[in-house]
Amino acid sequence: MRIIVKCGEDECRTEFNVETTDPEWECPSCGHVIINRQYPFLTAKVMQARVEGDSSDWKRNFKDLLDTIGAEMEKRTSGELEGPPKELLIKGHNELKREHSNGEWRVLFEDLLSEGRKMVLRMEKEEESPDETR
Asked: CB of 39 within 8 A of CB of 119?
């Protein structure tokens, strides 16, 4: 999905188109690099939930994000998930069995987004530079 971002450099502030699927974006005017802090989970659904704020169904958003994280992690591994990736998914599914307020689901969503992103980035890094002992 394409969106417009604004360069964070005070002297530049150029607006330019980017793909939400890219982990970082470079300003075409000054070369400043902007990190996509929601990569690879910046979707229209996530953006809409943020716009809706407290009125969004954060439990549903949490479940959708959990499913997306699982799919993204499976893309980056051969075989069955194990270790921290599997633990993150189990923890998320256990949360779905609990009762939380919508506000608490929003916090859990943000935490899951952050942890899922870290996990996927770690998996990508391992793909790029696999340990020679494997």
From this structure: no
pLDDT value at 34 more than 70: yes
Residue 106 confidence class, pLDDT cut points 50, 70, 90: very high
The answer to whether position 133 is within a domain reads no
Residues 8 and 59 placed together within one structural domain of the fold: no
Backbone phi, then psi, for 44, in 5-degree steps?
-60, -40
**Segment 57-100, tens digit of pLDDT:** 999 999 999 999 999 999 888 778 888 999 999 999 999 999 99
Q: Kindly state whether residues 25 and 63 are assigned to the same domain.
A: no
Query: What is the C-alpha R_g of the chain?
Result: 17
Q: How is residue 95 written in tokens?
A: 């949360």
